[in-house]
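Reagents: none. Just compute today. HTH araC/xylS-type domain-containing protein.
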Amino acid sequence: MQPFRLVNAQSDKQAVAFAGTCEVITYDSAQLNIFAAELSHCQPHWHEAPELVYVLKGALSLTVHQQEVTLNTGDLAYIGPDLIHALENQHQCALLTLQFSPQLGHDTHTLPAGFGHFRADTPVARQLVSQCFTLLERVLQPDAAFFALQACTYSLLVLLEEQLGQQPQIPAGTATDSREEMVIRQSIAYINEAFAEPLTIADLADRAYLSYSHFSRLFKKVSGYSPSDYLAMVRVNHAKPLLKSMQVPITDIAERAGFAEHRAMLAAFKKYCGVTPTEYRKQYYADFEWRADDERVTSTPNKPLALSSARKMMQASILNQ
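Predicted 3D structure written out:
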């Protein structure tokens, strides 16, 4: 699973970069970052900017704070600030993402927090899509009036705030001590980088200078996952592309992904995917290509889409409602 590195399709400037697993975002003059892409996958990460994701076509799996939802064409999801989340393509997925700078809020009223998803066939989803479409049209205008763009942005945020208040919320998952929270986020970044090593929870606790029990409690509080669950899921995510080739033995894949033995990978796949590694391979191997020259399996990367193309896809979706 690779970080979600995207390029703003209009300006050809880098719009999103990663420092570890904390996403660093560059905003335009209106304090927005809007991009479209064909999704492959996006590893667990977080950022201070809340974001609204709209599925232009296909389907994706979104995991936020241990809650997993499947989003299909026309569905939307709002992910509040600093929530750890991951995305994975389920079927030919393309998405539009709107990220809102925290600067759009102020000291007495921050941007909406929490998580919510909205199905395409609901009135609120149609309202949100209409607002997103209007905002996107403003962004695409070369001489867009600044305050008109701001008005569209705040109208969308007002609607989101109203609707999020009506949805059951997941726990915020943040620690009361910011230093301790940073320690756990550093541990998450380390797991994402060193997953193939023989890591243990005791090792991770030692690196964080915390006791095993305190580290485990704090990790769950900050991320929503137990450290053992998170480590296993990262390894599963790294094993998936390798399984999509018939050329690599499953025992080798288990070793490359960091599992101590094949049985550990088998148990993890059954727990988190509902299928065995062999069943997963049979279902999906045709989507990936084996590269014999360097003995690596590569998947299709996240491919940027022009915002003008996203606009056409949104317009077609609105007309079909």
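Confidence is low (pLDDT under 50) at residues 1-20, 172-176, 286-300.
Action item: order primers for follow-up constructs.
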